[in-house]
Design brief:
By secondary structure, the protein is of the alpha+beta class. The protein has helices at 19-35, 41-48, 56-71, and strands at 86-93, 104-111, 114-122.
Amino acid sequence: MPYDPSIKLKKNLGEEICSHKYSQIIGFLLHLTNSSIPDIAYAVGRLGKYTHNSDHSHWAALERVFKYLKRTINYRIHYTKFSVVIEGYSDANWVFDCNDTKSTTSYFFTLGEGAVSWKSAKQSIIS
């Protein structure tokens, strides 16, 4: 998994560690998420909250994403000759972050067993 949900990341109150580099990497991962690798969307969304003031725990979680990408480098989205059926899936998590009170909602749609649209975002209101 690209993100370990048992790790509770918190806002860094100490000295920041390479926040500029951290935000560049998050931007790169966001591009990958939007263009070809939807399975890291949740992890990138969670880690993107800490671009302003990252610390060692944030970098360790970011390293986990890159290890996941290295293990799955040969995975591809394949479009086959299956019947053209659009399927959609959605999910939401309940609040588990003590620093935040908003949930996260995700969805993705497939066409012929290949992903064509996906999104993971924080809900705009408390539900």
